[in-house]
Amino acid sequence: MKYSEIMVRYGELSTKGKNKKDFIKQLGHNVRKALQQFDDVEVKAQHDRLHVTLNGADSAAVMDRLGGVFGIENFSPSVKVEKDIDAIKATALAMVKEIFKPGMTFKINTRRQDKAFEYDTNHLNDLLGGYILENVPGIQVKMKKPDLTLRVEVRMNGVFLSGQTIQGAGGLPVGTGGKAVMMLSGGIDSPVASYYAMRRGVKLDMVHFFSPPYTSEQALAKAKELTARMAGYSGGIQFIQVPFTKIQETIKEQVPEGYLMTIQRRLMLRLTAAIAEMRHAKGIFNGESLGQVASQTLESMMAINDVTTMPILRPLLSMDKTEIIKVAEDIDTYDLSILPYEDCCTIFTPPAPKTRPDLEKSRKYEKYIDVEGLMKEALDGITITDIRPNDKFLNQNEDVFAELL
Ligand code: ATP
Ligand code: MG
């Protein structure tokens, strides 16, 4: 079927009262951005719907993009016909026939904006329902939960028919929830946490710590490529890479082994908070899940959180690893996350990090190093990259990909 437009329904934001205007504007903006590669597509946001007029663009490709835009509850590919009852009937029948399977139930659901149209909603429901029953042997009418609801909308500029409703990404439009920074490693968890943060409308900047020569170029490329996958949900993301080698080496030299990890994490968080403040971000997200590893106990969180008053948000806090992996697969980050490039923490992780670090001792041992000087040097060494959806950074020819396939 050749569709003329995709009709997009909003999710939660239709209940948001006074913020509604901003939400619709942001969603319209995000949808336009997501569809910018389609030159002829037009996007028109209205109070309860958004209309994406295809003007010949490939509907499947457009819907694929729409599926990644937060704030969309669902959408329906629609066909526009003239306000002529025979044309409406013919298109309705063709649509049903395309989807029909034996034993299928259906109903017609008509909305009429153009009150001057000669048929009212009941009349149209009856007419079209009768016509389908006559022409599709075996189909039955069912009012509650039919297999197929054929929606007919009589608007001022034509009649729109649709037979499918496709689930959208849900959540809130990215940008409506303010800006935060995400601590992105190359692991499984932080991309999933990023997904959940963006789903609540938060615009993210990614902060990534890397430690050459202990970590490779490929480890950095992997974090960037993960960012590119996430960028599909927000149009584009700034990737902030922070050199962490000197800090790690200094900590390894100066701090008792049981506290290496805690002090490293405190420094990471101090730097992330400083970056967040510089960029006027209002919070820090990470991929921690309670009890997963030594640094993710309540005692550890207390000893690490101590360095900032900025809110630290942990979307994965109560999720099990198996659940997190499932989401990583769904959002298409898992295959990248499991590529075996060392990340900066694993290398300097002592064999037995303290699972219950003491807050006072953490504060004391941190004083063994020049926190301010080291931070300044790291912040001076930051590099920022603008990452677009699906940008590539990894060397795809590496053997490691072949091994994994
Ligand atoms: P992940 O899969 O996200 O790496 P993890 O289970 O491996 O998580 P940790 O390595 O302990 O857990 O890291 C906990 C969190 O700290 C990460 O989810 C991430 O938010 C942050 N983090 C860890 N390493 C880095 C890094 N190199 N750069 C930025 N953030 C990091
Ligand atoms: Mg990790």
Automatic annotation (TrEMBL):
Entry's EC annotation: 2.8.1.4
Domain (THUMP) ranges: 60-165
A Pfam family reported for this protein in Swiss-Prot or TrEMBL: THUMP
InterPro entries found in the cross-reference section: Rossmann-like_a/b/a_fold (IPR014729), ThiI_AANH (IPR020536), ThiI_fer (IPR054173), ThiI_N (IPR049961), THUMP_dom (IPR004114), THUMP_ThiI (IPR049962), tRNA_STrfase (IPR003720), tRNA_sulfurtransferase_ThiI (IPR050102)
GO CC terms, sorted: cytosol
UniProtKB keywords: ATP-binding, Cytoplasm, Nucleotide-binding, RNA-binding, Thiamine biosynthesis, Transferase, tRNA-binding
CDD domains reported for this sequence: PPase_ThiI (cd01712), THUMP_ThiI (cd11716)
Chain's role: Catalyzes the ATP-dependent transfer of a sulfur to tRNA to produce 4-thiouridine in position 8 of tRNAs, which functions as a near-UV photosensor. Also catalyzes the transfer of sulfur to the sulfur carrier protein ThiS, forming ThiS-thiocarboxylate. This is a step in the synthesis of thiazole, in the thiamine biosynthesis pathway. The sulfur is donated as persulfide by IscS.
The protein, known as: Probable tRNA sulfurtransferase
Organismal lineage: Bacteria, Bacillati, Bacillota, Bacilli, Lactobacillales
